[in-house]
Write a structure and sequence with these properties.
The protein contains 15 helices and four strands. The mean pLDDT is 75. 67% of the residues lie in helices and 5% in strands.
C-alpha cells in the first residue's frame, strides 16, 4: 500500500504541474457562470428590447368596423394604407411587426350573432419576441368589449356564456417539476465533465509516459504493475471527481450571483439542490467515474503515443453524450430495464432522486450495475496492464 501511495503522490504532483490538467479542471467553474450569465443576460435584454419597442401593425378592416385601436396602448402604431400582400412581404422582411385583418362581413356577422375570424400574421423565430402577446392583449380586450355589447343587446348576464369553469390543481410539487428538469441537465453536465476530467490524465499517465520514455524507468522500480496501475488509476479518478465538484461549484456560483436569473427560479433550484440530494447524485457519479477511468486507461495502455491515444478516445464523446441525452427525453423513465443501461441509468436515477420520486429497487439496481461495470472495466484494464507487449508498445 505504501508503494501505491508513493506512486499516487508522484503522479499527482506531476499532474498538478501540468497546465493542461489544471485548465481542464478549472474550466467548469469559469464556464458555468459565464455561460449562464451570458444566456440570461441576452434573453433578458432581448425580451426587454422587444417589450419596449413601438410596434407597427398593419390593419385591414371594413368601413365602419370597430377596430382594436381604441383598446391599444401608446406603444402600438396602426397602419391602414397596406394591402395584405404588401404587409406580409414587409413582415417577412422585418419592416413591419404584424398584420391584423378584420373580415368584410364582420359587422353583419356581429349583428346576426355569428362568430367571425380575425386573422393575425406575424413572424416569430423565438420566444423573446413579445409582438404576439402585446397585440393579442389588444384583440382580447376588443373581443371582451364586443361580448359585453352582445350580452347587453340580448339582455343576458355575462355569465350566460360560461355554463361552468374548470379549476385545475396540479398536485406535482415545485420540487418534482423542477427536479425533472434540473435532474436531467445536471447529471448530463456531470457526465460530460467526468469524461473530460478522466481523458487527459488517462492519456498522459500512460501513453504520455511512453512517449516521454519515462514508463520504462517506472517499470524497473520495485513497484509491481498492479501498484503502478492503482496509483495512476487513483489520480485519474481524483482529477475527474475534482472536475465534477468544480462544475457543481460553478453552477452554484452562477445561480446565486447572476442577477438576471429570476428569484423564483433561484428558489426552485435551491429547493431541488438540497445537500442530501446532491450527495446522492454524486454517489451515482463516483462509480461512473471509476468506469470511465478504467476504460480510458485501458485505451491509453493500448496506444503507442499521446496522439494515438487522443484519436482512440475521441469517438467516446458521442458514445457518452447520446445515452446521456436520451435520459433527458420526456417519457423515458427509470425502470428495471433502463437501470441496467450504463449512462442512461445514471441520468434517469438523478432525475428520480431530484424530483423526490425514488423507487428504491431500480435506484439500487443502478448502483449495483454501475459498480459491476466499474469493476469489469478495472478487471480489463488490469489484464492489459499485466501484458508487457501492451506496456512496452511504442517504447
Amino acid at each position: 500500500m505504501n508503494t501505491t501511495l508513493t506512486i499516487f503522490r508522484k503522479e499527482m504532483i506531476e499532474m498538478l504541474r501540468d497546465k493542461r490538467t489544471l485548465i481542464s479542471m478549472l474550466i467548469p467553474i469559469i464556464m458555468f457562470p459565464l455561460l449562464i450569465g451570458i444566456v440570461s443576460k441576452v434573453i433578458s435584454s432581448k425580451r426587454q428590447e422587444s417589450e419596449a419597442k413601438i410596434l407597427e401593425i398593419a390593419l385591414i378592416q371594413p368601413a365602419g368596423a370597430m377596430i382594436p385601436e381604441a383598446y391599444s396602448p401608446d406603444d402600438i402604431t396602426w397602419r391602414y394604407d397596406l394591402s395584405a400582400e404588401v404587409a406580409d412581404s414587409m413582415i417577412v422582411a422585418e419592416e413591419l411587426d404584424a398584420l391584423v385583418i378584420i373580415p368584410d362581413d364582420f359587422l353583419v356577422g356581429f349583428d346576426q350573432l355569428d362568430t367571425a375570424t380575425i386573422q393575425f400574421h406575424y413572424k416569430r423565430l423565438d420566444d423573446t419576441n413579445a409582438t404576439w402577446g402585446r397585440v393579442m392583449s389588444v384583440i382580447d380586450e376588443f373581443e371582451n368589449e364586443l361580448m359585453r355589447r352582445r350580452f347587453t343587446l340580448l339582455e343576458l348576464p355575462e355569465t350566460a356564456a360560461d355554463p361552468f369553469e374548470v379549476c385545475t390543481t396540479n398536485l406535482a410539487t415545485i420540487k418534482e417539476r423542477m427536479g425533472l428538469v434540473i435532474g436531467g441537465l445536471l447529471p448530463y453536465m456531470f457526465i460530460i465533465f467526468a469524461l473530460m476530467g478522466c481523458m487527459h490524465p488517462a492519456i498522459d499517465l500512460v501513453a504520455g509516459e511512453k512517449e516521454r520514455g519515462t514508463f520504462e524507468t517506472l517499470l524497473s522500480s520495485p513497484a509491481g504493475k498492479l501498484q503502478i496501475l492503482t496509483g495512476k488509476f487513483m489520480v485519474v479518478v481524483l482529477v475527474a471527481l475534482t472536475a465534477v465538484g468544480i462544475s457543481l461549484l460553478g453552477l452554484i456560483i452562477a445561480m446565486t450571483q447572476i442577477k438576471e436569473i429570476p428569484q423564483e427560479l433561484k428558489d426552485a433550484v435551491a429547493m431541488v439542490l438540497e445537500p442530501g440530494t446532491v450527495l446522492m447524485v454524486l454517489s451515482l457519479i463516483i462509480p461512473l467515474v471509476v468506469f470511465f477511468a478504467a476504460v480510458l486507461l485501458a485505451l491509453s495502455v493500448g496506444a503507442k503515443s499521446y496522439k494515438e491515444a487522443q484519436s482512440m478516445m475521441g469517438p467516446l464523446m458521442p458514445v457518452v453524450i447520446v445515452p446521456a441525452y436520451i435520459g433527458l427525453l420526456p417519457g423515458v423513465e427509470l425502470s428495471m430495464t433502463t437501470a441496467m443501461i450504463p449512462i442512461i441509468n445514471v441520468t434517469l436515477a438523478c432525475k428520480a432522486i431530484m424530483s423526490g420520486n425514488i423507487d428504491l429497487l431500480p435506484v439500487t439496481l443502478v448502483y449495483v450495475s454501475m459498480i459491476a461495470y466499474a469493476l469489469l472495466g478495472l478487471f480489463i484494464c488490469a489484464r492489459l496492464f499485466r501484458k508487457d507487449e501492451s506496456l512496452l508498445k511504442g517504447l
